[in-house]
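I am still getting used to backbone structure tokens and would like to learn alongside you. Would you supply a protein for us yourself, any chain you care to pick? Start from the sequence, derive the backbone structure tokens from it, and show both lines together. Go ahead whenever you are ready, and we will take it from there.
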Amino acid sequence: MKRENVNYLVVGSVVLSGLALMLYILFRLSGGVGENDRYYADYLNVGGLSSGTPVTYQGYKLGAVSSIEPLKGQGRTHYRVTIMVRDGWKIPDDSIARIYSEGLLAETVINIEEGDSDKYLQPGSEIHGRQAEDVFKTINSVASSTSDLLTQSLRPLLDNLNFTVTSMGGEMDSKIPKILDDVSLLVKSLKEGADRVPRILSEDLEHKVSSMVNNANTMSANLRQLSKGLLKTKNSLDRLLKQSEGTIGTMDSLLTDTQGAVVENRDDLRASIMALRSSLEQVADYSETILHDLEGSARHMNEFSREIRDNPGLLLGGKPPAEVGTIND
């Protein structure tokens, strides 16, 4: 009898311990009574949310949804979701509470995306709520777009392609015999040309071809020598250009010095040029007088030489000789 009581006591203790452990686990999972901060978020659609839905912070489980309250405003119904978050957790005031689901079959959670602000929300404040992307709506949109593409673009394209292939098939049926006849004639012409090739390639032609090859070889050798000569000429020209560069540099410096001297002595040069111009004008006047005198002297010399030729005795002071064979005789 005592043993049965002991067994009952052990069993009862184990059950009570299990209940206490389960209550503690539930207590910790719910965040603990009196150890949570309360925040709010508004949504237009709370599909997948309910009391006890997990709340995460950047993926880290932080609390749970406490309640969902429908509210009317501005002609629409929106839902005020109460979020219980671990006590003392700092949330930037530009953070976003987004309804999030990892997959079609995964549970829906509210994930708080951390903001960049240095200011933090006070317990009881409102967190900016963002709706989750409706996967089924997106799939329906894609399916609708695909259906429109199939009905409006691909089907007419396939019909046109079918019509084009059918038309080409009819044309090919009518033109294939003619094409085959043309191919047959082409093969026959090629065969006749191949038969003529041996007759064309005579010994004389082979000799000419051999001569052309030899001439080409000779020409290539000459071109090689010419290229070598051009290379030597290029080297000589390079050396000449280098020497010319030095000469050009010297001429540049000379011209620079000359220009400097001209600029510095511009007034003296102008005076010298004016004096030279005056001298040249005087020389020109004298030259005209001298030329006039020379012209007179030349005329006198011509007259003197003519008289000497007619009467050389004038040089000795004699008289001119009598003319012989004239009418007066």
